[in-house]
Each structure stands twice: as structure tokens, then as C-alpha cells.
Specification:
Blueprint (H helix, E strand, L loop, with lengths): L14 H6 L4 H6 L21 E5 H6 L5 H5 L38 E5 L2 E2 L19 E7 L4 H4 L6 E7 L5 E11 L6 E12 L4 E12 L15 E4 L12 E4 L2 E3 L7 E2 L7 E6 L6 E5 L5 E2 L2 E3 L3 H5 L11 E16 L2 E19 L3 E7 L7 H9 L4 E6 L7 E22 L2 E21 L4 H8 L1 E3 L5 E3 H5 L18 H7 L7 E23 L2 E20 L19 E17 L2 E12 L3 E15 L2 E12 L3 H5 L1 E12 L5 E11 L7 E12 L7 E17 L3 H9 L4 H4 L2 E5 L2 E7 L2 E21 L2 E18 L6 E2 L14 E10 L3 E10 L9 E2 L13 E2 L7 E14 L2 E10 L35 E9 L1
Parallel strand pairs: 2-5, 32-36, 42-43
Antiparallel strand pairs: 1-4, 2-3, 4-5, 6-7, 6-46, 7-8, 8-17, 9-10, 11-16, 12-20, 13-14, 15-16, 17-18, 18-21, 19-20, 21-22, 22-25, 23-24, 25-26, 26-27, 27-28, 28-29, 29-30, 30-33, 31-32, 33-34, 34-37, 35-36, 37-38, 38-39, 38-40, 40-41, 41-44, 44-45, 45-46
């Protein structure tokens, strides 16, 4: 078997890939798996100017993951990806459970995902391709093209391309079983894979069938010790304008005070009274006095913060419950070298359940005659002449809200390929049609109807002394079931059923369809010029994207729920494209690579993308490469056709005489048919050093500079209000509707092309391969350094994400690295990986100070600490190979995060009522599961 290192690409390579050419014939065999890179022209060696990282099947086997995306996300060029474990809060947009790949942290919708060089249908209208839908047991390699490739593959290849290569030529039968579990005994999962392939008709025909099944038992709360410290970022209670204190404070021992599990009064003469356990004899809650610490906004430092957080803290899922099924079939028959017919079909099903949070209610009005109020508290209300109080409650007895989503993805491909000659020119071609269909069912769980919960809360006694809803007194058939929100009282199933809309929860079915028809011709020798053969590739493609769907007819229009007030997205567009690419030798050792693509969108018209690159073998030991490209991301189905998702929000608007007032309104986010494609201009300059005096060693350095203009974005409601009322911008005032002259009723937020993004950095790589003793040693270091990742919307101060370790998926540490060592023999394989990233900050615009702080502004806030430690992890694996009769077999053990390193605490906040429910770290960056074991067995006949 080949060494477990990065195999060389057939078209474009990193330094480590080229070094492989100086090793054994086994590594030469690994070369054959690579089929597609950032170019449409196949060439030997690493002659293309765009760097490509290649992950081999052997590497995937050495680091088995529950999800292929988890492996790809460890590559330094990949940052900001989401997984099914990190997006449990994506309820109302239906994205919970989708796993993406995000190159350069430019956004997952700016990374093009391919399967054998072909597009795949997205699993959401925002264009996210769920990599869990790829038949993972059949993946024999992954190529990561770290550079713009729109001229080769079209829209979305702004940051690059991730191409999953399937082993279509496999023959025989292989089976695999994997079991995974954490060192804490949770998140157990099982994975079974079966693959079978055979040839017929003397090898002219091929049949292939593969399938895998994965199941995981999730953890519904964040059950880890490091989660207990109360570490958050808050508005500093000691801050006042001009007093020299930092405006933001990051510290432990922080929690909320606005609610307790059974309810607390936070204003008026009874402030600090909170309701506790229920007395079984009286059925009434105990009265307790809350100890407040210094507080501001929703946060409090010290005091009884442990009491207030109970029930809400950790209520987000650590890991989801999941089931995945992938089935793949392929048949091909070569009638002649010029005519090979093939067809393939794949089916993927994902089922995932996760929980967002146990949502608190900070402002619940309780009338004095509420039947559940303790008599002693009612007496206090009478004594203080109060007819009602407002409590904040963590909603003890109401389960956490979440989603239970299902996605079925179908992909059908039929094609022709072959080779033929016209005179002295040898041509190859590939023509195919693909139909991709994604059927999604977005289903929420435990989500209440706001109006029903309000009616159920307002409980009184009727003339017979029975507790009923007040509304039932005048409408006896309204079905309302009273609920006790005073104290730690259980909630009856009948009451839960009522507030949860009799079990009819928000849901939406969507159907996304992608049709692609494409043909490509290429030759490696169109003609000979003075320096060698000129290569040419050209082709055309037609693509249609559409979406339609339906709502749950029994939950009228999905309106009035706490979350998931879905609306159906409906729309379609088509794309016509033609491209040409050439490689033109200039002199010995130097080539120019040029590509041009003309694309016509039915929604936004014609756009041109191009690439010009070159390679120059300056000396035998050093090669220089450079590229310049123009790439695009066209608006997706959601950008164009979003129907206007509605939610309640609040903005501050100026009033006459100074000051502001808070207006509560309905916020609607819609699509925009006038959007144009985003345009990126990219530079790439690098070199590969392979010293002849040290065989097996190679090093490379590549600089990248991506400037994205006309980025599609949406202003916030507050920014819209500021532009209208403070700057009198007519276009933004047009987005605001009024119920009365001084009462905003609706603000409509529309995406448009107004933002810009600038990403610059350097990729480093060094590798060494050698035969030592009975086996092969492979050492490799891959490092990505981000210099800038700046977003500028032209309104607020530009934000640089480079070096920022906070912010969820926005985090882009300055230095990201992956160091690997492998020793491989005929019977054993040992693999070690050190991966990690550098220290960072909360925000590059923050000003760190303890005392004597300068003026804090919305763009440049002061904070007591602006430092977040980086993290380093060690992963180890060992594989034993043996034979059973004529079968090849191996058993393996893989340990991820060997030292069970806790994540660095990150102070999230200061906004968001979900913040205490979430991990007190950045789980898009740091490992929250701890040590994970994966073990299993593989057989091949």
C-alpha cells in the first residue's frame, strides 16, 4: 500500500506532491487517482500554476472521521466551515444539520463543491452543498484548489474548488465497520460501508455498487466541566462615558439576572423576588430573594448568577442525533475507444435532530388574580397596590426548542466519453447530463405559538374554583389549557400540546432541482510551436436551478410561532456558458496558461471570467508560478427569490429635541431580482523548491490576494433606520413603512451588491519522504498565514477577521498549521498529526485597556482584554494489516485530541438571549467533544 502522505496531482501540485515523484513506484501508483484540478487541460507533473492540495484514500483511512467534512476542515486553507454539530441554531432558515466546506473563510457559498469534476445539487437555497450527501465509502481522494477557478468551472469558485474523487474503477468486494465514542462515554456512533465492483465483456463493461450507513446518538446539552465557569463578554456595569473604564468586559463568574428557572421580578417594589420549588401540600411556589451583582443590559457579574442560569445554561446540543444513508451505483460500457457510455445514480438521506436552546422569556406579565400565584406574594402585591407584575422566566417545564430535519438528495448522471483523432491531433471528450434533486423537510420541535402561550399563562379560577384560562371564561370552546409559569412547576402534557399547536409544528417542504448538460473537448497537442506542443480545451454547459415547496397545511402559514415562521421560496434561473483554455509553451521550462469563460444568466445577463497564469522552471531545483484571474459568484436562489421571512425586531430612532425611542416592528428579509454577480480579482504568486542534493525534500511558498467587489449583503434594520433618519438616504427610507407618523410598522431588508472583501495571505509547505528500514517515512508541514480578511460595507468601519479567534464561523486565526508524520510498512502503519492555530483577538477594532481608556465608539469599542489563546491538538492512529485466506484485512485505532485538551474559553456576547445556552468557546474553531476514539476493521476480497 502507498505511504499515507499527500499524493501528487496529475495537473497541479504542492511541494509535497512533487516530492512524491522522487519516491517509490507505490507513490507513482497513487498518482493515477487524480482526475481533475483547477484546469481543464490534463498535463503530467505539477505544471499548472494554481496550487492544489491532494488528500489520498490512504490519508482518509489513517484519520477516519464520522464525516468527510471533518477531515477537510483540518486543512489550514479551510476555515469557517459549518458542521451538523455547529449549526443547531439554524432553525428558521432550515440549515441545521448541513455540513459545508469554506475555503479562506470567504463563505461556503464561495467555495465550489464538485464530485468527479461535476456539480452537485445544493441542500439549501443559499447554495450550500452538504458534503454528507457524497458516498463517503467510495471517496478515493479529495482535491482542494486554493485559487479562483471560475474560468474553468463557473460560478462560486471564488475562493477555490473542493473536488471529491470517487473510485469508479474499483473491482472486488470491500467492507468496513467503524465505531466512535468520546472519552466521556457519549456521542457513540456506528458506520458501515460496503462496496462491490466487477468487470464484464473482457473489461469493456464495468459495474459498481456502494453504500454506507451512519448512525449517531447525540448529546442534547453541553455536558462538559469547562462549561461551568460563566465566561462571557458583557457590557461593563462599571462603564460610563468618560470614566476611563472599558466599555466591554470579559470575565468569569457572569450570568444573566433577567430570568430564573421559575421566574423573577426585576422591577418595582418587589424586585428580586424569585419563585422556587413547589410545596406539594399547597401547590404554591416558594418565595426567595435574589442577590444582584453589578449588572448592565442582560448581564450580571457575581451575585446569584448560578441560580439565574439554571435550566438555560448548556441547553444547546453538544452533538446531534443523526442517521445517514448513501447509496451509489454506476455502469459503463466501452463500445470503442471513441465511444464509452456511462450512467450513475446516487441517493442520500440525512435525518438529524438537535436543540437550539431552552428559550427564556424575560417579560411575562402576571396578573394579580393569577391562580398559580403564591398567597404570600399576592398579599405583597396588594400591599404595594400592584395589579400585575412582569417576570422573567427560564420556562422551567417547557422543553428546549430544536429541529428535526430530513433531506433526501438524488443525483442521476448519464454521459459519453472517449478519444479520437482528427489528422495528427488526438482528442478526448466528455459529455454528460446530470439531474440533481434535493427534497428537504424542515421540521421544528417544541416551538410554541406566542399567542397560545400568553393565553395559557393568564390562568384564573372559575366560579367552581377550577383553574382555567381567562379566555375560556368568555370562549369555553377555545381549547386553552392553563399553564403554571410560577416556580419550578411541571407542565402537563395537555398544556404542552396546546402551546405547541396541538403537535402541528412549523414545517416546510422544499424541492431544489439542478439540471446540467455539459460537453468538453481537449487535446494535449493542437500544434507544435517553437517551444513545444500547444494544448487546448473548450466546451459548453447549460445549467438550470429551481426551487419550489409547500408549508404544513395544518399549521396555517406557519405564522405566530416563536421560531420557524417559514415561507416558501419559489423561483428559477438558467445559465448558458462556453469556455476555452490553452497551455502555450513560451520557451523550454516556461508555459503560459490562459482560460476564458462567457456566461449568460437569465437573471443578470452576461459576465466574463478569465485566468492567465504561467510557470517557469528557473533552475532545476526551483519553479516559479503566478496566476491572475477574474472570478464570480452569481446570486443564488435565496439571494434572488427569498419570499420575506418575517420576525419581530426593535430599532432606536431619533426623536425631536434629542434622544431616541425604541420602535418594535415586523422585519422582512426578501430577495432581489436586480442583483448582479459578485466579482473577485485574484493574484497568486509562488514557487516550489526541490533541492537535487536532498532527494525526497520539497518546499513551497504561495502568496494569495483575493479582492471581492460587489459582494451581496444585507444592511441591518438599525443601519437602515440610521441612514434614513440621520442621513436622509431616500433608498433606505423607502424600505420603512409606518402604521402612524411616529410608529414604524415594517422594515424590509433587501440584499444588494455593496460590500467588498479583501483576503491576503501566504501558504507554506515542506515535506520529506524517505525509505527507512522496512518502511517509508513521510513528514509534512502545511501552514496558512492570513494577513488580511477585511470586509468593508462602506458604512461602518471595515472589519478585519484575520487574527480573530472569536465570532463563530467568522474566526480566521492568523496562523493555521497541520504537521503530520507517517511510518508505513507492509504490515503496520503509524500516523501522527499535530494541528492547530495561533493566538488571536476578539476583534481587531477593539481597544484593549484596563483604566484610562479612550472614548469607546460602536466601531472602536474598548475592552478589558482582547486576547484569545490559540490551541494545539495531537491525533494518533495505528493500523495493522493481515490476510485471512485470500482476503486482505486491517484493524485500526484512531484517537483524536489525544491529550483531551479542553477548548480555550471565549467570552461570547454581549447580545443574544441564546448566548448562555451555547458553548463558552468558539466551537467552529475549538474542539468541544474532547478525546474521541474511532476503531474498526476493513476487509477486501
Amino acid at each position: 500500500m502507498p505511504a499515507l502522505g499527500f499524493a501528487p496531482a496529475a495537473l497541479a501540485q504542492s511541494a509535497g506532491d512533487q516530492a512524491a515523484e522522487q519516491t517509490s513506484e507505490a507513490d507513482g501508483e497513487a498518482e493515477k487517482i487524480i482526475t481533475v484540478t483547477g484546469s481543464r487541460i490534463a498535463r503530467d507533473g505539477y505544471d499548472a500554476p494554481t496550487p492544489v492540495n491532494v488528500v489520498t484514500e490512504a490519508e482518509l483511512d489513517a484519520e477516519p472521521q464520522a464525516n468527510i467534512g471533518d477531515y477537510v476542515s483540518t486543512l489550514p486553507a479551510v476555515r469557517g466551515s459549518q458542521s451538523s454539530s455547529t449549526n443547531s441554531g439554524s432553525l428558521s432558515n432550515g440549515q441545521a444539520g448541513i455540513a459545508t466546506v469554506n475555503l479562506r473563510n470567504l463563505g461556503a457559498n464561495r467555495t465550489l463543491i464538485l464530485i468527479d469534476g461535476q456539480r452537485s445539487v445544493a441542500s439549501a437555497t443559499v447554495g450550500f452543498v452538504d458534503v454528507q450527501t457524497i458516498p463517503q465509502g467510495l471517496i478515493k481522494g479529495v482535491e482542494v484548489v486554493t485559487g479562483g477557478a471560475s474560468s474553468a468551472y463557473g460560478s462560486d469558485a471564488v475562493a477555490g474548488v473542493v473536488n471529491f474523487i470517487l473510485d469508479k474503477d474499483f473491482t472486488g468486494l470491500k467492507a468496513e465497520y467503524e465505531y466512535g465514542i468520546t472519552t466521556y462515554g457519549d456521542v457513540p456512533n456506528h458506520l458501515v460501508r460496503l462496496t462491490g465492483g466487477t468487470n464484464f465483456a473482457d473489461g469493456r463493461g464495468k459495474l459498481l455498487l456502494a453504500g454506507d450507513y451512519f448512525t449517531q446518538e447525540g448529546v442534547d446539552t453541553i455536558d462538559r466541566k469547562w462549561q461551568q465557569s460563566g465566561f462571557f463578554q458583557i457590557d461593563n456595569p462599571a462603564y460610563a462615558v468618560g470614566n476611563g473604564q472599558p466599555e466591554r468586559l470579559v470575565a468569569a463568574g457572569i450570568g444573566t439576572y433577567q430570568f430564573t428557572p421559575g421566574g423573577i421580578v426585576n422591577s418595582g417594589p418587589l424586585r428580586g423576588t424569585y419563585f422556587g420549588s413547589i410545596n406539594p401540600a399547597t401547590g404554591q411556589a416558594s418565595l426567595n430573594q435574589f442577590t444582584y451583582g453589578p449588572n448592565r443590559g442582560q448581564w450580571m457579574q457575581g451575585g446569584d448568577f448560578r441560580i439565574s442560569r439554571e435550566g438555560h445554561l448548556n441547553s444547546n446540543s453538544l452533538a446531534p442525533d443523526e442517521k445517514r444513508i448513501n447509496v451509489f451505483g454506476r455502469a459503463s460500457y466501452e463500445f470503442s475507444p471513441a465511444f464509452e457510455l456511462y450512467g450513475q445514480v446516487s441517493y442520500s438521506r440525512y435525518e438529524g435532530q438537535s436543540f437550539y436552546q431552552k428559550t427564556p422569556s424575560p417579560s411575562v406579565v402576571i396578573q394579580r388574580d393569577n391562580a398559580y400565584l403564591p398567597d404570600a406574594f399576592r398579599a405583597l402585591m396588594v400591599a404595594n397596590n400592584l395589579t400585575s407584575v412582569t417576570i422573567g422566566t427560564g420556562n422551567f417545564g417547557i422543553p428546549a426548542q430544536g429541529s428535526d430535519n430530513t433531506r433526501d438528495v438524488y443525483r442521476y448522471v448519464a454521459g459519453l466519453k472517449g478519444a479520437f483523432d482528427t489528422g495528427s491531433i488526438a482528442w478526448s471528450y466528455d459529455a454528460y447530463y446530470q439531474l440533481g434533486i434535493a427534497k428537504t423537510q424542515e421540521q421544528l420541535t417544541n416551538t410554541w405559538v406566542t399567542s397560545r402561550l400568553a393565553l395559557a399563562t393568564d390562568a384564573v379560577r372559575n366560579s367552581a374554583g377550577t383553574i382555567v384560562c381567562r379566555s375560556t371564561l368568555t370562549n369555553p370552546t377555545n381549547g386553552c389549557v392553563p399553564i403554571n409559569r410560577i416556580g419550578l412547576a411541571p407542565v402537563s402534557d395537555a398544556a404542552l400540546n396546546y402551546i405547541f399547536n396541538d403537535g402541528l409544528q412549523p414545517s416546510r417542504r422544499q424541492r431544489l432541482q439542478q439540471d446540467v448538460a455539459a460537453v468538453t473537448f481537449q487535446t494535449a497537442s493542437l500544434f507544435e510551436n517553437w517551444a513545444g506542443p500547444v494544448s487546448l480545451a473548450f466546451g459548453a454547459e447549460y445549467r438550470r436551478e429551481e426551487v419550489d415547496g409547500s408549508l404544513n397545511p395544518d399549521a396555517p402559514n406557519n405564522l405566530g410561532f416563536l421560531y420557524g415562521n417559514y415561507r416558501v421560496t419559489t423561483g428559477d434561473y438558467d445559465v448558458k456558458e462556453a469556455f476555452v483554455e490553452t497551455v502555450f509553451p513560451v520557451f523550454e521550462g516556461a508555459d503560459l496558461n490562459g482560460a476564458l469563460r462567457v456566461t449568460d444568466y437569465s437573471t443578470s445577463g452576461t459576465v466574463v471570467t478569465w485566468k492567465l497564469g504561467g510557470t517557469w522552471q528557473v533552475i532545476d531545483d526551483f519553479k516559479l508560478r503566478v496566476t491572475r484571474s477574474r472570478d464570480i459568484r452569481a446570486p443564488n436562489l435565496n439571494d434572488l427569490f427569498a419570499p420575506g421571512t418575517a420576525r419581530t425586531n426593535t430599532v432606536n430612532v431619533p426623536v425631536a429635541g434629542g434622544g431616541t425611542r425604541a420602535d418594535t416592528f415586523l422585519e422582512q428579509i426578501t430577495g432581489n431580482l436586480n442583483l448582479a454577480p459578485e466579482v473577485a480579482r485574484t493574484w497568486g504568486v509562488g514557487g516550489v523548491f526541490m533541492p537535487s542534493f536532498l532527494p525526497g525534500f520539497a518546499a513551497s511558498v504561495d502568496y494569495f490576494d483575493i479582492a471581492l467587489s460587489g459582494a451581496i449583503a444585507t444592511l441591518t434594520a438599525q443601519t437602515t433606520a440610521n441612514l434614513c433618519f440621520e442621513q436622509n438616504v431616500a433608498s433606505q427610507c423607502a424600505q420603512i413603512a409606518f402604521a402612524a407618523p411616529n410608529d414604524i410598522s415594517t422594515i424590509t431588508l433587501v440584499p444588494f451588491n455593496f460590500s467588498s472583501v479583501k483576503v491576503r495571505g501566504i501558504d507554506f509547505e515542506a515535506s520529506y519522504r524517505a525509505s527507512i528500514g522496512p518502511g517509508n517515512l513521510t513528514l509534512r508541514a502545511v501552514v496558512s498565514h492570513y494577513i488580511d480578511n477585511i470586509t468593508d460595507n462602506g458604512i461602518n468601519a471595515p472589519v478585519d477577521l484575520a487574527g480573530q479567534n472569536a465570532g463563530g464561523g467568522d474566526a480566521t486565526p492568523s496562523w493555521n498549521y497541520r504537521l503530520s508524520a507517517n511510518y508505513d510498512t507492509e504490515s503496520w502503519s503509524f500516523n501522527a498529526v499535530g494541528r492547530g492555530f495561533s493566538d488571536g483577538v476578539y476583534n481587531n477594532n477593539f481597544i484593549e485597556c484596563q483604566t484610562g481608556c479612550p472614548l469607546s465608539t460602536p466601531d472602536f469599542r474598548t475592552i478589558n482584554t482582547n486576547r484569545i489563546d490559540g490551541q494545539w491538538y495531537l491525533d494518533l492512529s495505528v493500523t495493522k494489516r493481515f490476510k485471512i485466506a485470500s482476503s486482505e484485512a486491517e484493524v485500526f485505532l484512531y484517537v483524536r485530541n489525544v491529550f483531551d485538551t479542553d477548548p480555550v474559553l471565549v467570552g461570547n456576547g454581549p447580545t443574544g438571549d441564546n448566548t448562555p445556552a451555547y458553548p463558552q468557546t468558539n466551537r467552529n474553531l475549538y474542539d468541544v467533544l474532547g478525546r474521541v476514539f474511532r476503531m474498526g476493521v476493513r476487509f477486501k476480497l
